[in-house]
Amino acid sequence: MDLQEFLLNLIIIYSAARVMGEIALRLGQPSVLGELLAGVLIGGSLFGWIEETPTLKLMGEVGVMLLLFEIGLESDLHAFLKVGRAATLVAVVGVAVPFLLGDLLGLTLGLSQLQAIFLGATLTATSIAISARALAELGQLKTPDGHVILGAAVIDDLLGLIILSVLIGLATTGAVSWLEVGRSAGLATLMLATAILIGIFYGHRLGDFLKLLNTRGSLIVASVTFALLLGYLSGLLHIAPLVGAFAAGLVLARTEQLAHIEKAIKPVADVFVPIFFVLVGAAVNLSLLNPFEAANRPYLLLAAALGVAAVLGKLVAGLGALGSKADPLAVGIGMLPRGEVGLIFAGVGLSQGIIKEGEYSAILLVVAGTTFLSPILLKWRYARLRA
Amino acid sequence: MDLQEFLLNLIIIYSAARVMGEIALRLGQPSVLGELLAGVLIGGSLFGWIEETPTLKLMGEVGVMLLLFEIGLESDLHAFLKVGRAATLVAVVGVAVPFLLGDLLGLTLGLSQLQAIFLGATLTATSIAISARALAELGQLKTPDGHVILGAAVIDDLLGLIILSVLIGLATTGAVSWLEVGRSAGLATLMLATAILIGIFYGHRLGDFLKLLNTRGSLIVASVTFALLLGYLSGLLHIAPLVGAFAAGLVLARTEQLAHIEKAIKPVADVFVPIFFVLVGAAVNLSLLNPFEAANRPYLLLAAALGVAAVLGKLVAGLGALGSKADPLAVGIGMLPRGEVGLIFAGVGLSQGIIKEGEYSAILLVVAGTTFLSPILLKWRYARLRA
Question: What domains are defined for chain B?
């Protein structure tokens, strides 16, 4: 690909992502939904304006690593230690129940065990970004509800990353090897735990090291390099590079320079991340969603059934907040939005040929549906609680 | 290239660039010199730790566009209009004399007309970054000397971009077509003039448009997209994409959001730009600089001769400040540092096969030499002026 072609691809991706992101926002939706739809629009199944080249793919993969790095930076370990029991219960139930419902649904529909596991996994992870923004808009970010939801979403994310490692292990070996699952999960947990411990005890020393750097841009480049390095080491351990990037964020979250790193990483992530979501959207084959095509109906039914499982699973999880000061129903609703992480799971399944395009499209519908539903239901719930 | 290999390349490039940049800074040198040397170290002629892949090359090319975009953003058209006559004279003489000296030197040494033109061109452009930093360290940024040097450096940059278009036109047609030179220069001038006029009269309206964007990261992504778009359009006109990116910077410099754009573009440029300089450094073949190898002596002599031409040309240019309040010698010394732009010229010549590795290495030596010389001589001159 020559420079002109590359520039044209970037211009189209950024323009479409921004325009659709703005439209989504004006319709009360998160802009990530717009970016995905932008990909659907400019991808092969509609306009066909872009094609996935190796360079775009690599930049998108770095983008999603930077996204997880940033989420790691924003994760306050202390905040969720305080909400403790309720948040953990909500997170664990909120991962287990949707996973089991999705898995059972897959097996009932005659899918293989591996496919069913992928389906279940895509229903597990709550999107921190969407929850946080919806709660902020309702003024519920610094209430017991907000603390439990955000705390649970953080644990959710940790569990989700472990699940991702398990899924990648599974996708690589091609069979359900529980030894492999244990090894993957063990390594991921070990890596995260090590990162957290290093972060707590030595994070500030890393900050002292960063202080030695005087050249312009050294803080951001050193931070990005650290994220890429832990991502690369994860890859060597056969766990997802995302896990390492997230762990790098957790470690650097403990440095004095956190505010500077966060400020500098945002524009960098803003430039890389849309490439990932647009390519994800571009991978959706719209023709599979046509209800007039008889062959598609199973997938559309799958989307509806998965949607019910996704909502039900998280509402049940809300019961974990019983006995705390938080409202169980509001917590359950706050946990509804699925986002990046679920799509990453589905993307891994799709790229490994485990999940097919139709199933991927169904999952995309569920993500869109839950993302759309949560702010509306939260608004309704708080209006009712006030009355 | 798979993700792991790509991550490893990025980690090596960033680590080497940062370490060498820090060492350069501690030795009183600009960090860009360290990044170039980092490339020399990890490139093929020494350790061979990285190889130039298409993805790295494209990212580096976007990086250098972002660098010029940022320089465009920082260019204050009004400031140099005020220093006016002196700055223009210094800039024009400071481009013409080194160019003629370099060209004559090349022809004397038996090079072709095209090669001689490239040699001359690499001696023309003063590095704004290095001048500004050296002056700041000496407290001379807001004096008549500082204004003339910076004003002249800005005009230098405009002239340099026109020269680049001419060079690329020449490199493409393979012969000195003065019609083509006129057309390239005309188009580049027209494009820059249009950008400046649009910037002056409509820049703030572009700011009004940017205000309509509400999604996170929309300002930086829209700005980068604008730079890539003007770069792409430049490419369609057969002028360098850098020219368009620089023009985009000039236009956005007139918007209300300038401060926000500048703040956000810096970390993004910091992540992309080192890839360019490291790859440039990696292209240097060190074995050609061995003085014990008889075949190399012509190139080493070339470096010495070019160095004399480079210094002499800019000292003569300083005389353009006669009659202003600025000190002509200090101005000439302040114009000495060559940097990015000269290396870009040389890089174009190298990639088109016009300049050979040996000549490229000689130019790199001249850049390093002038960059090294200027702060030392400036310090000496101001000590003498005070005495």
Answer: 61-274+300-386 (1.20.1530.20)
